[in-house]
Amino acid sequence: MPIRILSSSLIDQIAAGEVVERPASVIKELAENALDAGARRIEIDVEAGGLRLLRVRDDGCGIPAAELPLAVQRHATSKIATLDDLEAVVTLGFRGEALPSIGSVARLKITSRTGDAPAGSELGVDGGEARPVRAAAHPPGTTVEVRDLFYNVPARRKFVRTEATEFGHIVAAVERVALAAPAVAFRLRHNGREVLELPAALDERGMASRLARILGEDFPERALRVEQRVGPLSLRGWLGLPTAARAQADRQFCFVNGRAVRDRLLAGAVRLGYRDVLYGGRHPAYVLEIQIDHRLVDVNAHPAKTEVRFRDSRAVHEAVFRAVERALASTRPAESTPAAARIDLPAFAGGAGRPLPLPLAAARVAAELAFHAPMAAPGAAAAAVVREPDAGALPLGHALAQLHGLYILAQNAAGLVVVDMHAAHERVLYEALKTQYATAEPAAQWLLEPLSVNLPEHQIDLLLEAQADLEKVGFEIDRVAPGQLALRRVPAMLAGAEVVPLLVQLAQDLGSERGAHHLDAAAHRVLGTLACRAAIHAHRRLSLAEMEALLRQMEQTERASQCNHGRPTWTRVSLAELDQLFLRGR
């Protein structure tokens, strides 16, 4: 076939394929145009999943009658005029492609009126052919009607999904735009039935209501408010608590200068920020708004404008990661911290081996207690302690007993606290190991005689690959013979423990997926495995002083509401809940 110039109608339909992917794409483009026009309320009507009708009405500035024919011509826009404007775009739309693209694959009608015009004007487009402008009754603002989408492109229409599926995409598109513009009211109706009614969110209470409507009723109560500034970038929004993580990544919203984006760099930075608190295979919910100098971001990187490029992507990634990490570091037991969510998670089996002592001296804590009750004999379900401690402002209160060698029962001012002792101790150890690793001057103890560690050669290779990380937390190892390592130094916090089985288990974990624990950095993988294997294991009988020491450490440790694997470490049963269980009135 010889080279030839394509017809204008074919060019329009090819270009439309880049902008109009499905009915939801139309809604997105029209809603963004309404926001650029200064709308304070946007009403959207949909029929048959958007294939029969898509109507978007706004109360924005309107389009003058003389400019309506230009509005449906390709690359005609009022938003940029020079290359400098393109390099610092401040509006959501700027290419002048949306309306002509829609008009080329549907029956389009635009009715608009400016605030100073005596009447409105109407322009119709069928399959790319515009009709003359005529007068029409209309309040100030613009209404865009799109009927019979893809009626003239059968190949495209065949790929449209069911009505329910397409409308689901429309709802998702409206939710994204509504979160990007909280001060604007939105209403969405499908086949005459109201689906979304979102009043303008003009204060914190209004925003909480919008978040609850879109992300779930419990999201505002199970999210952390974040607001930080790093250089030219500011980050604000809401981070869902790790215990509120979901099986799907369907509640993650990211905005750059008010534009909803799906950016791998940003998503990766947020995921990395959750690395120490998120259970494997779970996905956090969040709404994050990034404000950055418009000249430092390129929004002209994708036809649908859903991807952006940053001039200094590494700095942006680091800033977002650190902001999320710092915010989540506050997830420790506190008076204002909600009780850990009761979520269904797969059972976790800790490794066997001799339990290790708590880092804090239990003797000092015991001296501060009113008295020390002995633990029950082996096999008993719990140690009963008759006491009325003054929990005061201690978030986790005072220890009462140990249940089945797995849980610590404590009493605080609000009610009963239940702590998973292995998960809690694992987090305490992990944070202590990270602190030592960061200082590069670990508290360590040299052994009078090196301990021999016998392992297969491939596992010895794995430990030696991690040797630098192990040295930074206090271990000293070297190969002395085939299949044999010498252990010469151990971290001070592990002194007196059986560290040889610990290193054997670490070598096994490093060679399997189990050792990854969702952590991305190799050093953190090593530290996480050490903490997991060194933490108190099931059926270790703790004294009351040891239980108290662990509770106090949790209150002082960052991220102590989750273990290294993202499991909750504690929960609380309020007095009101207990009263309800026993039909007790106060």
List keywords for this structure.
586 residues; 3 domains; alpha+beta; Ribosomal Protein S8, Chain: A, domain 1; Ribosomal Protein S5, domain 2; 5-stranded mixed beta sheet; 23% strand; Heat Shock Protein 90; 9-stranded mixed beta sheet
Overview of this protein structure:
This protein has 18 helices and 23 strands. With 586 residues, the chain is an alpha+beta fold. It folds into 3 domains: 8-197, Heat Shock Protein 90, CATH 3.30.565; 204-328, Ribosomal Protein S5, domain 2 (2-Layer Sandwich); 362-573, Ribosomal Protein S8, Chain: A, domain 1. The longest helix is centred in the C-terminal third of the chain and has 19 residues, at 421-439. The protein is elongated, with a radius of gyration of 31 Å. Residues 336-389 and 513-520 have low confidence and may be disordered.
The CATH class label of the largest domain is Alpha Beta
Assembly type of the chains comes to: single chain
Q: What's the alpha carbon Rg, rounded to whole Å?
A: 31 Å
Assign an overall shape.
elongated
CATH architecture of the largest domain, by name, is 2-Layer Sandwich
Beta-strand level of the residues, as a percent range?
15-25%
Number of strands: 23
Mean pLDDT: 81
Runs in which pLDDT lies below 50 for 5 or more consecutive residues are 336-389, 513-520
